[in-house]
Amino acid sequence: MKLIFERGKEGQACTLMPACDVPQVTLAAPKREKKLHLPHVSENELSRHYTELGKQVHGVNDGFYPLGSCTMKYNPKVNEKAAALPGFTNVHPLQPAHTVQGCIEVLKQTQEMLCEITGMDAMTLQPAAGAHGEFTGLLLIKSYHESRGDVKRTKIIVPDSAHGTNPASATMVGYDIVNIPSAADGCVDIEKLREAVGEDTAGLMLTNPNTVGIFDKNILEITSIVHEAGGLVYYDGANLNAVMGVVRPGDMGFDVIHLNLHKTFSTPHGGGGPGSGPVGCKSFLAQFLPGLQPVEKDGALSLVAPENSVGSVKAFHGNFLVVVKAMTYILMLGKEGIPAAAKNAVLNANYMMNKLKDIYPMAYDTVCMHEFVMCLEKMKHDIDVSAMDVAKALLDYGIHPPTMYFPLIVHEALMVEPTETESKETLDEAIAVFRKIYEDAQANPAAMHECPVHTPVRRLDEVRAARKPVLRYTFE
Amino acid sequence: MGSFLPNSEQEQLQMLNEIGFNSFEELFGHIPEQVLLKNLNLAEGMSELQAMDHMEELADKNVKFRHIFRGAGAYNHYIPAIVGSVVNKEQFVTAYTPYQAEISQGILQSIFEYQTMICELTGMDTSNASVYDGSTAAAEAVAMCQERKRNVAFISETSNPETIKVIKTYCYGNGIDVVMVPEKDGLTDAEALKEAMGASSACFYVQQPNFYGNIEDCDALGEIAHAAGAKFIMGCNPMSLAVLKTPAEYGADVAVGDGQPLGLGLAFGGPYLGFMAATDKMVRRLPGRIVGETVDRDDKRAYVLTLQAREQHIRREKASSNICSNQALCALTVGVYLSAMGEQGLTQAAELCVSKAHYLQGVLAEAGLQPKYNHPFFHEFVTVSDVNSKVILEALEKKGILGGYPLNDKEILWCATEKNTKAEMDQVAAIVKEVCG
User: Fold this and answer.
1) CB distance A92–B70 less than 8 Å?
2) Full domain range(s) for residue A408
3) Using one digit for the tens of pLDDT, what is the confidence trace for B330-368?
4) pTM of the model
5) Which candidate from B74, B103, B248 shows the least CB-CB separation from A93?
6) B194 plus B258 within the same structural domain
């Protein structure tokens, strides 16, 4: 397909700017010398270019998207409608407080609802994504220990099944990482945790349900082991969709959490963002929150920095329009809809798992939560068909593959998260496809390495991309 | 209650039974009783109509200004109609990060095109696929320059205060020492910078045009940084790069900025977009996604996420950054915006900004608000007056005008863009004259 730079011709353009109605001024400053190359296309060519690009993208709207750990649920259109209201889109972030009462109320109401759902006391909506939330939450932990003069705490404990962002975020906050191996059941190894904690423990980062899709039943013991050692416990909210309205991180002993509004709260992923990663905490950490907090006085709202705020993790008030979308979603679901979504997510995952486990071995054959992990090690060993091959075969059936090769503790892993917004019919169809691929693989394993064959492009030469990087178009 | 669940209760029960459960209670039976939530204290769910009504009511509580003369990090530019029409396409909106390249060529190619446009604007060799916003881009750029023996970052006081705050917060995390370089007459004090920098200096960050709108002498500043063996980082307004000397031409090692002026609405501060571009030497230190060109099995040109050995999902605690989700849809927005504008349209918009801002400065001076500085500026400038800033801005607000950003009781930071007309600016001057006269 042509690049936008390969379309149109010099001199062609959209007519957008008016003539100048004031005396023209020439800047008395150094000018750019290098010629600026930007596309030169008519609006029609431009429109068609992106329409063509759009045809080469698989979104949730195009079909089943069981990408584990990413919660690719349906993105309600009303969210988009609310976020497009001019009363939200045309507001400057530095307007006086009395002219942005509606925006501040959005922040306030959303924070209150998210606190109730998570069992936290305070929240910031400033972080722009999940990893950004992790970074923010860890800054709170660091501020807390330092405020008490407890400077020996330099280590963050992370299970070996954790998302890569956990250790990467801890490094950004200057912590050393202690990786602890998971137990045979995929959960935290309590003895290993006891051995790991000590006077140098700043905290533990955990998801529950964990990254293999299992609810860790020992959670109260885990959080109390860390607390007894003087550390804090961080909840990675990537998997909250399994338990929202059923179990709250705050009731499991977590001190600080992040949420992914673009996973659990139905805001779209936009091809990789913008997301939103609010951070919630217990009251003793609220004084350290970054950014500004909504405060009500005499019926008027204003924004005030917390007493010992760690600063700001982003300019202004976060990805505000994403917050608007999540708020709309929570308002619609309400007290019954929130747990109902979680329950159906767990049901859909267990249903799919049970209909596949006779041919695709599960890494952990137990009741799962919102997602499950298959282990294709045997298939790889027996007929040289890998998790990658199965994933690529799914592409030919219009199904987005599950997350591949994660978590790292499961070999040849495929992590499947159907989400609650898929119908039984869709699940049954997907199950049939998985089973067909299995049969095809047994019959003709070599053909699996050729998949996909019906996609706009086929498997890519990733080695070439990395060895001889071409990272931009070069104009002649 | 609103719901997006396709399964009926009957179907749910049937599915439960098929896999050996009689109820949801049984399915969740392995969760310890002590942690189960008894009551979720939220209101009952709403219908779509009610939810929309609620949100409209909130939106209506905000004041939308028809006439805006405030910038300070968020700029009121015209957004072509085609931009919204493209970026609202459901495929783009509802896709995840393009891990599966075979079914994500549209997103991957759009990012590759975006990277090319950012390289063109900045003159730099390589761009990443975006970070959260201009301030986090600046903070990530500072982190890129940290070396074992070089752990001090110098930040010009003339930078946007929001950016300074974010850099300081990130550096509290990663342990880089931040030294502020003082401002002198609205510009970075080059002498002070020269004296302060030394063998432990990692980098120097300056914003161009700076927070007060003034154009810095980045040739001199870059030279000082490089003479100390440190990296030179420039934070740029991308609109200004259509006409101003590029960071590459100033010798910058890393160029960053906020892409908001390029097609993204004011939106109470977000989502915006942080762009980051660097010299080839620095490319493996860049955080975030990068898209590269390659071929598929049939030798067809195609695009893929590349140089992933920098990233958290591979390198974990040794990654160059923790970033995972970025601002991909905003990068698409910038790509569509720049394609619609073209070099001609963007240059025209930038020149309009310059002319309008200078006209506004002139009529405000006549009305009693004197310019504070006498340096070349792009589209922002500061005025001083004995009349309290608040009084002036309130008078404008009454007429539906969002005036400049008050720096203090006496000084206001103004901004004019291609959207502001002569008639509008004359009206502002008339109101100011009434208040000051």
Assistant:
1) yes
2) 340-462
3) 999 999 999 999 999 999 999 999 999 999 999 999 999
4) 0.97
5) B74
6) yes
